[in-house]
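In the design runs reported in the main text, the only information available to the sequence generator was the tokenized backbone. The following block is the verbatim input for one such run; it is reproduced so that readers can re-run the procedure and compare outputs position by position.
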């Protein structure tokens, strides 16, 4: 299930950006990203008397290039230049409207955004500043760009996001469509019980006929009302199933042989199939349960972690180094993750060997969840820095679980709100630009 953005998603995206987009054009960043004009620079456009320079376009173009680097078909340089100019024109017009309606971003909000970016990139704030300095980016320019992004986000929330409404009819239609799509992707699950009348290799035709007659007898007795569990205990050559009354358990249809699926396709719950022959022998199958999920599914993850909290006795760097050593021991098989978690972890999960139980999306802080979601079962991540400390994460297993009605409606509401907000934003942004005076001068280079 895809994660859905809240109404304040622009602010969050700003704070969660990787440093790649900020460090994309260090030479241009070394000056303020405001409209300061230097020698060899020139004005390419004016928006309500405020200029946009060629250097501004270069900076924006490189940021867009960095953000699209992973795309299968990234835009070419000319397209990026036009996108950058359009983005700057829209920003200028919107920033002027934000000023007119009294939106101001205080220093506390800027500082929080800096911390979020540092945490998301597993850096401390001093290290973040050092990274910016190394790449020729002034902290003042960096903070000013953050102020711009947060201003635009708050303006959007005020003028667009907070005015979006989702009706009950919208929610019902969304859920119907999602369930229809899911039904194609998620096959039903079956719980079958089985009696296996084994046919040994090299059996003679006469011996096979005797065993076939026994299978027919078991089928008749099962259909006549005798306990299928008792018949499995008495006749089944599949010991595990026999001890369990022949029940194989609820599982997706792709985990049953096609032979079994064909034999039970037209059965109702409680009915017994005719004997079907395989290389192992004759199978008599009873349909215990057929489940087609009528609720949307959500992927749950069961993970465990070791948490170290930096302190006067152990710095963040020391915690990272220690957990790197732990990871090497666990991956190489020299140590047991659960035992080390009990000994080392500094949170309440230590007693359970770091086991965090089954978790749905959104239960952990974003920086933790992002790393956890990238892991395969039994994979151990590199040490992660979050707002709580330094973590070593191992994913144990994943499963798809039906969502509650309340969870489904929340999902639908958030998805529809985000969709409607994006559509409304496009219309609003065009309107703001249409009311602005825009003068295009020299083409950007």
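Verbatim output:
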């Amino acid at each position: 299930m895809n994660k859905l953005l809240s109404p304040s998603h622009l602010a969050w995206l700003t704070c969660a950006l990787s440093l790649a987009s900020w460090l994309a054009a260090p030479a241009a960043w070394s000056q303020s990203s405001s409209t300061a004009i230097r020698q060899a620079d020139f004005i390419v456009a004016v928006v309500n008397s405020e200029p946009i320079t060629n250097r501004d376009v270069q900076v924006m173009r490189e940021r867009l290039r960095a953000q699209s680097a992973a795309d299968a078909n990234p835009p070419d340089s000319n397209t990026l230049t036009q996108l950058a100019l359009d983005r700057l024109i829209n920003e200028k017009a919107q920033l002027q409207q934000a000023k007119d309606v009294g939106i101001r971003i205080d220093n506390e909000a800027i500082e929080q955004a800096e911390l979020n970016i540092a945490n998301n990139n597993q850096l401390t704030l001093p290290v973040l500043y050092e990274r910016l300095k190394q790449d020729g980016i002034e902290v003042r320019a960096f903070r000013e760009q953050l102020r711009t992004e947060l201003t635009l986000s708050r303006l959007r929330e005020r003028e667009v996001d907070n005015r979006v409404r989702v009706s009950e009819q919208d929610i019902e239609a969304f859920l119907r469509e999602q369930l229809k799509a899911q039904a194609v992707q998620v096959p039903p699950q079956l719980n079958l019980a089985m009696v296996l009348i084994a046919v040994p290799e090299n059996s003679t035709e006469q011996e096979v006929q005797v065993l076939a007659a026994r299978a027919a007898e078991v089928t008749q007795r099962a259909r006549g009302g005798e306990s299928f569990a008792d018949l499995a205990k008495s006749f089944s050559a599949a010991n595990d199933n026999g001890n369990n009354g022949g029940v194989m358990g609820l599982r997706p249809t792709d985990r049953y042989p096609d032979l079994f699926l064909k034999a039970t396709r037209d059965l109702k719950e409680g009915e017994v199939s005719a004997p079907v022959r395989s290389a192992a022998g004759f199978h008599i199958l009873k349909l215990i349960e057929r489940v087609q999920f009528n609720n949307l599914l959500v992927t749950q993850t069961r993970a465990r972690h070791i948490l170290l909290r930096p302190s006067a006795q152990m710095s963040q760097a020391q915690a990272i180094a220690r957990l790197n050593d732990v990871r090497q021991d666990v991956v190489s098989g020299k140590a047991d993750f659960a035992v080390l978690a009990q000994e080392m972890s500094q949170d309440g999960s230590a007693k359970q060997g770091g086991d965090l139980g089954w978790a749905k999306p959104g239960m952990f802080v974003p920086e933790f969840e992002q790393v956890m979601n990238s892991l395969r079962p039994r994979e151990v991540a590199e040490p992660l820095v979050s707002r709580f400390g330094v973590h070593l994460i191992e994913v144990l297993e994943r499963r798809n679980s039906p969502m509650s009605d309340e969870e489904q409606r929340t999902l639908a509401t958030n998805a529809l709100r985000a969709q409607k907000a994006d559509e409304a934003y496009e219309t609003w942004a065009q309107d703001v630009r249409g009311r602005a005076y825009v003068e295009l001068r020299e083409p950007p280079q």
